[in-house]
Amino acid sequence: MGQRQGTGALALAEEQGLAAARDAGINDGAGGTDPLERAIAATHRNRATPDRTLSPDQKAAVIVRLMQQGDLPLSLNGFQSQDTVKLVRALAGLHYVHEQTILAVMADFLEALQHPGLRFDPGLEGAIETLGDEISPDLKETILQTKPPEPPADAWPHIQSLPLDLLQELLATQTPLVTSIVLAKLPATTAAELLDTMDDDRALAVSTAAVNIGDLTAARLRQIGDALVTLTTGTDSRSALPGAPTERVASILNYTPGPRRESLLNALEREDAAAAEKIRQTMFTFADIPDRLEIKDIPKMVREVDNDTMVKALAAAQVIYKDSVEFILGNLSKRLSEQLRDSVSEVGEVGQKDGDKAMNAVIVAIRTLEDTGEITLITPET
Question: What is the helix (H) or strand (E) element at residue 45, kind and residue range?
Fold first, then answer.
């Protein structure tokens, strides 16, 4: 039998005490008229109205007290401990309740009996348990084995966990707009690697779409994620994508190799000069270190990066970003500066891929220090 709605005490009273209400006598000089019959009659005549001075727990206490007066054995075994505490406190707070109030409480009680609630155990397992022996064991097994897989609440963590080659394959058939949305949801370093694998026309189309994407609702973003997950397995009026479009593109281009980055920005300038300018102002690359980083913050930045990575970054940058290298080395202690210069000389030439990776690590370290409030970057002049 389904559990009835209401307070725990009232629910138990409904199960145990309807007969007790008929047996409970109320001495009002009316010749012992059955109080239950009077409650029913009063309900139909709209004379007994709910008493707003009693709380639900106190009304339950009134029903329980009537059960006791009717000599019906009362068991509290079905109560939760918190319901028992509520009942005892409700009883302790009552002194005298007049008949009209009792009749009103009984009318509420009868109304609750006429509109019982049903509680269901959700899910296939709960439904099978409810039906019990009405379903054969073989049919139960079949139902559970054919249970459809539940889709993940959020498909994007799955997409973000895909290896680079699968992401390339997934995006190869997507429109520039969808591709730009995926890139915006990926870590900037991963997005930059993907962008670098695209031909110039495709990369430009994706960058342009990212700039002009506008707002995207959370519901729409979920739909796109679910659709993409389906391919991999064979709201809110605000945008669900983080940041402004130009900020998202700038974040990706921060970690794109220098020559490719400049080629894309130059092409974007021809398509949308204003957007390209905003992106340049938002970006922070190795070349921006002298203009954006405070001198006093150079030692903090160097401590944030492991020595081997810093040496590779300086070695890779000493030709194309010579000003940045000298800015860093010139604002360290003499001893540390000399150590780094010697290490850069020893490491020699660094490959472009390793060099870009090391310089990106330095940029990540600077951004991390900025995010944690340890440093504040200089805002570029517009």
Answer: helix 35-45
